[in-house]
Specification:
Strand order of the largest sheet: 1-3-2
Structural class: mainly alpha
Number of domains: 2
Radius of gyration: 20 Å
Number of helices: 9
């Protein structure tokens, strides 16, 4: 009986962790895709109600995201989405271009042919979303398509770095809504997918890097940053 009781304990622990992990992944994705805006306070009970869970896994997940610098916490315990300075945004986006370009280059030699149609449909939906004005839908599609590429890079370390950069830059990308249709001229994801389909790693790297840096230049020119009033 003692052995049976010992064997049952880990199963309960695994289920508990799984629930917490699901909540964390949902909140992480929301931050990465700009579902929360810079400066927004995240209320524990509101998030728990939206996710259909108790406050405990939400509190734990917010703590993890604070530790990852995706969120910030005040001395009183309030959690919010950080504002971002112009210099930090540029550094994050330039780092994204380097790391995501590398991931795309590696993916070009590893991408299963069966995966390409799904990514191409996402790219088509992404192009269509530029006309709707729904920036949150656009950002979700953008994340799904790009991470669909990067998932084939064969490097968990590289994927981890990319996720970290998205967590910090993602909330500010919602300001692309200032001219969503204008993004058509600076989108290079179709070019990236064509290069991946042909197995051209360097062309894939170049297209993804240009896609990221063009978005960066657009926001540096048209958006206001946390430190602009101090300039």
């Amino acid at each position: 009986m003692k052995q049976a009781g010992a064997a049952a304990q880990p199963l309960k622990h695994i289920r508990f962790l799984r629930k917490h992990e699901i909540v964390y992944e949902e909140l992480k994705l929301a931050v990465m895709t700009g579902q929360f805006e810079p400066g927004q306070r995240l209320k524990l009970r509101d998030l728990a109600a939206a996710l259909g869970t108790s406050p405990m896994p939400v509190r734990d997940s917010l703590g993890r995201l604070v530790a990852e610098q995706a969120l910030q916490q005040t001395g009183s315990g309030q959690v919010s989405v950080p504002f971002i300075t112009r210099q930090l945004f540029q550094e994050l986006m330039e780092a994204r271009a380097v790391n995501e370009g590398e991931a795309a280059a590696r993916a070009a030699t590893r991408m299963p042919k069966s995966e390409l149609p799904r990514l191409e449909r996402l790219a088509q939906d992404l192009n269509a979303a530029t006309h709707t004005g729904d920036i949150l839908h656009y950002l979700k599609l953008n994340q799904s398509m790009k991470f669909g590429i990067y998932a084939q890079c064969g490097s968990g370390v590289l994927l981890g770095l990319i996720e970290t950069l998205w967590l910090r830059a993602g909330p500010f990308l919602r300001y692309l809504a200032r001219d969503l249709e204008g993004l058509i001229a600076i989108n290079y994801h179709d070019e990236a997918l064509s290069a991946i389909a042909s197995g051209n790693g360097e062309a894939s790297r170049s297209a993804i890097a240009r896609d990221i840096l063009a978005g960066m230049d657009f926001l540096l020119a048209h958006a206001r940053f946390y430190d602009d009033d101090e300039a």
